[in-house]
Inverse folding.
DNA sequence: TAATTATATTGCAATATTACGATGAATATT
DNA sequence: AATATTCATCGTAATATTGCAATATAATTA
């Protein structure tokens, strides 16, 4: 036990859950906001900005990258990360699809 | 280690992460969708619909209830759950606030 | 080329989540 | 009143997540 039974749910439900996980940690929310506001930034800046260890930031960045939300481009010894606009819109659409399923009041 | 360092992040970042956690499990997404489409339903129906044990469903319902997303009203021996419209809109707004922070393209 | 800088990966400890059987509490039925 | 039904809670096992030190890798500089 203790294992999520993905086979019980639809592809869409599993997909949304997988995406929601990304936003389910304040560090990743903070990273995304920082990438948005600085328009793109290198890992070192994020380590400075947030108070987490370099290894931890790197791990969070990987999770964001794995789901295609951010992209990293190598710039010499550094890596410059930024939001993937297409994916971002896609995710917003998926969330709003759920949000908009509920319209009226029942209770 | 292993503990999320909530104090490093803003109230808003922590709040959003806490809410995202709710959507981060397909069973809870499925429960919400079922509540939306049937307009309200009792725990027993959810146990039938999803293939999870009653105790597990009950646990997921509690998490949804704890964050105010759903409400349960006792109806005899059963409990009828439904979406909390105010909270639902509030959550949609919070998510869209993040989604809309990113507008233009950087890369 | 050796030392430095920047980031990723590995390994592990602490904690959180998921799932369910067993049990409890409350209402409904006989 | 005894039994059945419905749901919540407790305890526990399995697994996942978070965080970081240590180390690896790759580019830069001295």
């Amino acid at each position: 036990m203790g294992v999520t039974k993905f086979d019980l749910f639809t592809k869409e439900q599993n997909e949304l859950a997988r995406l929601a996980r990304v936003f389910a940690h304040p560090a990743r929310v903070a990273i995304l906001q920082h990438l948005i506001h600085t328009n793109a930034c290198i890992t070192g800046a994020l380590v400075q900005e947030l108070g987490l260890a370099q290894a931890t930031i790197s791990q969070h960045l990987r999770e964001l990258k794995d789901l295609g939300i951010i992209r990293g481009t190598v710039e010499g010894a550094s890596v410059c990360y930024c939001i993937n606009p297409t994916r971002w819109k896609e995710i917003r659409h998926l969330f709003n699809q759920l949000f908009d399923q509920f319209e009226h009041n029942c209770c």
